[in-house]
Amino acid sequence: TYFGLLAVFLCGLQGIVQAHNVASVATTDRINDSHEMASSMNVTLGKSTLLRLPSAISRISVGNPNVADVTLTSANEVYILGKMIGTTNIILWPRNGSTRVVDITVLMDAAALQDKLLEIMPEETDIHVKAAGDSLVLSGTVSDTVKVDRAVALADTYVRTSVLGMMMSMQGNVGQGAAGQ
After folding, report:
1. Between β-strands 100-107 and 40-44, what pairing exists: parallel, antiparallel or unpaired?
2. Residues of the chain under the 70 pLDDT cut
3. Burial of 131 (0-12, 13-18, 19+ CB in 10 A)
């Protein structure tokens, strides 16, 4: 039996795919549905999360609204939607006066690709997907080189589709903004 080691770096914004026979295994990061107050947090592209605040805030500001939609839903809760891969921050002004900055990183949906790979290739249970900025990293062990090629092709298609969707969404927002003026 042939066991091929799989480590792939898929660059989302540039569409670069590189396959290497390297023995490294990444873990899958799953984003929580809500977050307690932190100085940084990850949000999945196209998905939302809630940031629960320890004290009531009176004002909020987002550094780059193209990266994330940020809405104060109550005095103690912020809704965050990942709109574009990248980073931004939010500034929170609590009523007690101590300003807080939270860095936000919007990442590709590694969990969705992980689930799709398991669905399409159920016999290959040691393929791991991790988000890294505008990229996805595949690693693990597969049964043969054909499976390596298949996993890479599926991941490449997933990345290209995600990036295309993001770009089309951005163009739609630009068109709506111009039409509204």
Report:
1. parallel
2. 1-38, 166-167, 169-181
3. buried
111: its two tokens: 């969990």
What is the tally of helices (H) and strands (E) in the chain?
A: 2, 12
Distance CA 22, CA 74 (A): 48
CA distance 90 to 113: 28
pLDDT single digits (tens) 89-113: 999 998 877 888 999 999 999 999 9
Rounded CA gap, 60 and 70, in Å?
Answer: 8
Residue with tokens 């940020």: 70
**Are the CB atoms for 159 and 136 separated by under 8 Å?**
yes
The amino acid at 116: K
Looking at 30-170, which runs of residues are DSSP E strands?
Answer: 34-36, 40-44, 48-52, 57-62, 68-74, 77-82, 86-94, 100-107, 127-132, 135-142
Residue type, 174: V
pTM beyond 0.85:
no
| 3-state class (DSSP) for residue 180 | coil
The shares of helix, strand and coil residues in the chain, as percent rounded to the nearest 5, are 25, 45, 30
Q: What is the pLDDT of residues 20-33, one digit of tens each?
A: 222 222 222 333 34
